[in-house]
Amino acid sequence: MYSYAIRLKFKASNYAMDCEALLAGLAAFANQGMKDLHVFIDSLTLVAQVEGNHTPTTEHERRYKKEIMDATIPFHRYPNKPSVEETSSNKKGKTTSNAPGTKLNFNREASGCN
């Protein structure tokens, strides 16, 4: 398990900070020969975009999504379970998270290494 911190030297929204952190993490591990990468994100909007359940509305969001999707090419995505599940007691369709942070799973294929 690795933990790291990054410092942005520009003003950024919470969304941009989440995207930059995800991109930095993907870049850090893409060439390390790792087979499994578990990314924990607390931005449901970003998770929905990466999962394909939310269409980016601005050009800025579209560019971040493209960068993130390009950075995930070395990894093979596999879902273990939904990141957010419906609760039976909540009839209005709201969701609750399974964990403090939402988790994206990436599994690197050996044949995809460069």
Q: State the helicity in percent bands.
A: 25-40%
Count the E strands.
5
Mean pLDDT: 75
Count of runs of 4 or more consecutive helical residues: 3
Separation, N- and C-terminal Cα atoms: 23 Å
Instruction: Kindly name the structural category.
Output: alpha+beta
* Main beta-sheet strand count, sense and barrel state: 3 strands, antiparallel
Give helix and strand order, one letter per element, not per position.
HEHHEEEE
- Quick one: overall form? globular
Percent of sequence in beta strands: 15-25%
* Overall radius of gyration: 15 Å
Domain RNase H type-1: 9-72
GO molecular function, one term: RNA-directed DNA polymerase activity
InterPro entries: RNaseH_domain, RNaseH_sf
Keywords: Nucleotidyltransferase, RNA-directed DNA polymerase, Transferase
Provide a short characterization of the protein structure.
By secondary structure, the chain is α+β, with helices and mostly antiparallel strands.
Task: Give a quick set of tags describing it.
114 residues, two-stranded antiparallel ribbon, disordered C terminus
Helices and strands in order:
Layout: H1 14-30, E1 36-41, H2 44-51, H3 59-71, E2 75-77, E3 84-86, E4 95-97, E5 102-108
Antiparallel strand pairs: 1-5, 2-5, 3-4
3D structure, described in words:
The protein contains 3 helices and 5 strands; from the N terminus they run H-E-H-H-E-E-E-E. The protein has helices at 14-30, 44-51, 59-71, and strands at residues 36-41, 75-77, 84-86, 95-97, 102-108.
